[in-house]
Amino acid sequence: MPYTPFFNDAQVETAVAIRHQLHQHPELKFEETQTARLVAQRLRDLGYHVTEGLATTGVMAELDTGRPGPVIAFRADMDALPIREANAFEHRSQRDGLMHACGHDGHTATLLLAAEAIIAQRDQLCGYIKLLFQPGEEGGNGADKMVKAGVLQHPQVEAIFGYHNRPGFPVGQLFVKPGPAMGGNDTFKITLSGVSGHAAMPHLAVDPIYVGASLVQQLQGLVGRHKSPLEAGVITVAAFHAGDAANVIPGTAELLVNIRSDRESSRNALVGKLEQVVAGVCAAHGAHFSMEHQHQIPPLVNDAEWSRQVLAIATEQGVSPDIQQLDYMPTMGAEDFAFYLQEVPGCFFFVGNGDSAYLHNEHYDFNDAILPVAAGMFVALARSLLQRR
Q: Could you tell me which of 342, 350, 290 has the C-alpha nearest to residue 325?
C-alpha cells in the first residue's frame, strides 16, 4: 500500500512507533491514564490547545484558525480489552491479560498522524477543529460521557467523523455505508421468580427453568414477526443460570438477553416489546419477573449527505486507490460513536485491515499499512471542509 500524498516516510514511521508503544501498554476503559498522557503531550508538542480529564481520561485538542468557518470534530478511541494476547511479535502486549484486540491503538495513532499534517496547514484553513480522544468505547459508553462533558459545544460542532478498521476487507480499502452502518446494542438481565419444589412434584412448584425455556423460544417471534424483514435485528439469549441440584426445582432463574438492531424502528420492534413478551410468558405460568437494562448503545446511522461527501472527498484527494460505497451493513457490532451522531450529523467510515484475525481475537493486530489511508481521510476532510477562501 503506497503512502497517500499527505505524509512523508518519517511521519508515518513515527505514527507506527507510537502505535506499537500503545499496543505494548494497553489500558482498560476509563483507566487510559498513560495513553492519555502520551496523547496530550504529543498534541501539545504539535501546538494544539489540549484539555485532559474529560469523561475521566478523555483528551480533546482544539485548533482555532482565527478565521470564520465550519466547526468539525474527529474522534479516536483509546481503550483496550481484557484479553491475553497470543501474538509473538516484538510489540506484543507487556501487560498480561490486557490487549489492544480491536485496533484502538491504531485509531489513536491515526488521529495523531492526522493532527500533525492538519496543524502544519493551519494557514490554509478556516474555522475550528476538535480532535477527540475518547475513553471507554468497549462497553463503557465513553462517547456518551464525552458528549455530556460538553465536547460538542463551545463552539458547537457542526459535523463529526470517525472510523474503524475492518478485518476481512482489502488492506487500505476505504468504504462508507450511508444510513444504518452498525448495530445498536441493548443488554437486559431478566430474573424469573417461581416457586421452588421437588423435582418429582412439579405441579406443586412454578418452574422458572421451564418459564425461561419458553421465553427463549418466544423472543424469536419478535425478530420473525414484529420486525420488518427489510430491517436488521437479532436477539440472543447469551446466558441462562438456574439451579444446582438434580432433584430440586429452583426458585429463580436469570437470563442475559442481548438485542441488536439497525435503526430506531427495528429497535422499537424488539426492545419495545421485550417486557410485554416476558410478562405474557410469566403470567401464563404463574411466575414473576424483574428486568434490568444493563447496557445500551443506539444504532449507528450515518448522515446520507455527509457519507456522500466523505466518498467524494476521498476520491478527489486520492486518499485510497480503493474507495467503495456499501449498500449493506458490514457488521451488526455496536459502536458508541452513535452517541455523537445522535447530537450532530456526520459519518463513520471504515478502512480494510486485510486478512488479519478478527476483532476481539487473541491473535488480532492492527495493520500499520492502513495508518496513512485512515489519517489521510481526516486530513482530506479538513482540507476540503475548512479550505480558506
A: 350
CA-to-CA dists, residue 335 to 80, 145, 181, angstroms: 14, 14, 10
**Is residue 299 very low, low, confident or very high in pLDDT (cuts 50, 70, 90)?**
very high
In this prediction, residue 5 has a pLDDT band, given cuts at 50, 70 and 90, of confident
The whole-number average pLDDT for the span 296-308 is 97
**pLDDT at residue 3 is higher than 80:** no
3-state secondary structure of 222: helix
Bridge-based pairing state of the strands 174-176 and 323-325: parallel
**Phi then psi for 369, rounded to 5 degrees?**
-65, -20
Cα–Cα distance between 244 and 261 in angstroms, integer? Answer: 34
pLDDT, one tens digit per residue, over 38-91 is: 999 999 999 999 999 999 999 999 999 999 999 999 999 999 999 999 999 999
What stretch of H or E contains 187? strand 184-193
Preceding peptide of 5 cis, ω within 30°: no
**Cβ atoms 149, 336 nearer than 8 A:** no
pLDDT tens digits for 123-177? 999 999 999 999 999 999 999 999 999 999 999 999 999 999 999 999 999 999 9
Q: What are the start-end ranges of the H helices in the chain?
A: 9-24, 33-46, 104-120, 142-148, 208-225, 264-285, 304-316, 338-343, 371-385
Q: CA-to-CA distance for 315 and 217, rounded, in angstroms?
A: 48
Contact 214, 280 (CB under 8 A): no
Composition of the chain by helix, strand, coil, percent to 5: 35, 30, 35
Residues 218, 224, 229: CA angle, nearest 5 degrees:
160
Q: Which residues pair with 249 in a beta bridge?
A: 197
Q: Among all chains, which residue has been given the C-alpha cell 447496557?
A: 295
Q: For the chain, give the mean pLDDT.
A: 96
Q: Residue 350 above 70 pLDDT?
A: yes
| DSSP string over 342-379 | HHS-EEEEEEEEESPPPTT-TT----GGGHHHHHHHHH
